[in-house]
Amino acid sequence: MRKEPRQARSRATVEVIIRAGARVLGDRGWAEFTTNEVASVAGVSIGSLYQYFPDKLALVDAIRHRHLEDVLTVMRGLEQAGKPLGELIDDLVRGMVAAHTIHPALHRVLLDEVPGASGTRSAHRAFETEYRARYRAVAAACLRPDDPALDVVVQVLSGAVEGVIHKAARNNSLKSPAMKQELVTLIRSYLLQSARL
Question: I need a surface site. Which of 16, 51, 117, 189 has the fewest CB within 10 A?
C-alpha cells in the first residue's frame, strides 16, 4: 500500500476499493483485471485508488492479505477449551469453508492466475506463523503439547485441510455436504491415529 489511511473516511475508501477489487478480480480474472474498472465499481476516482495502491499488484496484495485475515479470523474463533474433538473439527471445517465461500471465484484466481509478489513474503510469514499455531492448538486436543511428532502432524493436518479446501474452491464444490463430511472424517481419523502412535 502506498499510503496508510489515517482517518475513518480514508479507511472506508480503502475498504471499498479492496472489496471492489476482490469482486472484479474474481469476475474478470487476472488477465482482464484493471484498476480503472476497480475504481469504477468502487465509485471512486482512479486518482483516489492510486493514492493508496500504486498498481494492480499492490491492490491484489491487499486483497490477498484480506483473505489471509479472513482465514485467521476463523482460526481465532475456534474455542478449544473443553470442547470435544468432534465439535472442534466441525467448527474448523465449517469456518474454513465459510472463509473460502466469500468469493469462491476470487480464490481460484488468487491460487491459479495472480503472480506472486516478493513484497508479501513477510506478511505471508506472519500469517503462516499464526496459522500453524492455530492448527497446533487443534492437534493438541489429541496429542500432548510436548509430543515430538506434533510439528509434523500440524504440517500434514494444515496441508491436508488447505489442499481439500482449495481443490473444492477450484471445482465449485465448497458447499457440498459430502465434501465437508469427508473432510471432517479425514481430520478426525488422522488426529486419532496420530494420538495412538
Answer: 189
